[in-house]
Amino acid sequence: MSEMEIKSLEERFNQRIANDEKIEAKDWMPEKYRKTHIRQISQHAHSEIVGMLPEGNWITRCPTLRRKVALLAKVQDEGGHGLYLYSAAETLGISREELIEQLLSGEAKYSSIFNYPALTWADMGAIGWLVDGAAIMNQVALINTSYGPYSRAMIRICKEESFHQRQGYEIMMALMNGTQDQRDMAQDALNRWWWPSLMMFGPRDAESPNTEQSMRWKLKRKTNDELRQAFVDQTVPQAELIGLRIPDDKLKWNEDRKHYDFGDIDWEEFWQVVNGHGPCNKQRLEARRKAHEEGAWVRDAAMAYAEKQSNKPLRVAV
Amino acid sequence: MKDWPLWEVFIRSKNGLEHRHCGSLHAADAQMALENARDVYTRRSEGVSIWVVPSAMITASQPEESAELFDPAADKAYRHPTFYVLPDELKHM
Ligand SMILES: [Fe+2]
Ligand SMILES: [Fe+2]
User: Fold this and answer.
1) Cα dist. A207→A36, A204, A223, A259, A266 in Å?
2) Number of folded domains in chain B?
3) What is the complex's ipTM, to 2 decimals?
């Protein structure tokens, strides 16, 4: 294809997105659109998968059966979210094998929040309430993104997320209605998860060079700072309602802006964790690698069985 | 390790409605594809029936060719009821 032809294809492509048309897998798309989407969708998928680890770790230690079935269902949902998203990424021409390989080799990124440890039961409350709360904020904004398979995955995911946040808040609420020790435990969890949750929205707009392009492709509908502000505004009253204190001395309602002002994020820490030096980066990847290696014989056995069965007739659908 | 084959999943949400494409998944064989589809796509009773089809078995039209492919339908307004001009007094037709 000549440069001229590509240019006119690109113009038409941009026009389609501007008109709110969706792009589907087999449609022509600029190489950069494809690459950026593979990267973002797969990072999102990896985050769902790695995100199962801090919570999965607590399933056997839930205080009641009610909490246990809820946490089990939530972690199972996150696994499902990872699968929807891997499938969406694969429509762009990358294989599942490559995607997993990128995660396990450490080449691919996933949300930094999952590199923090879940130390107490109250962390299950804080994660559901804050981490899923922040994820919902990001994901709702993506429902109208331009790439069809990504947008459809987001619709399913958002439908499933809302119980995640509610069960987390309910855990915090129960602890705040409990003994002094339980209230302290809830406050301690909020203290540790608050700032990492604000970091989930990514660097400040001024330091986020891809924002403009992503906005044009509707891969972002709101900027990092706008989403972060919306999250703070939404969460502060929720904390107050159950008697929790947000660990930020600068947090204050601003009557002129009609938003909360809040303190400075430790960006040093953010980049440390992104670049692999968070408290659990190593541990998380090792857990994924171990699961992958120890599951290899199951995958091989299933394939061998399928080959053996392939001569037998299938049940016909209609 | 090679990937398990890819399957397309279609779900009938209730009797009376058609099966609708809802996504895809990897599975070693058809039986596993059905079971995985149940776990991945119907955790909240979203379906009463599932079809799984090997993705490789689907023949798809190409977007580049859709202009020619669908062109024959574009200029046939007489296939639509509003093409026929009838008096206003005539109700319900
Ligand atoms: Fe999720
Ligand atoms: Fe979630």
Assistant:
1) 18, 5, 11, 22, 14
2) 1
3) 0.89
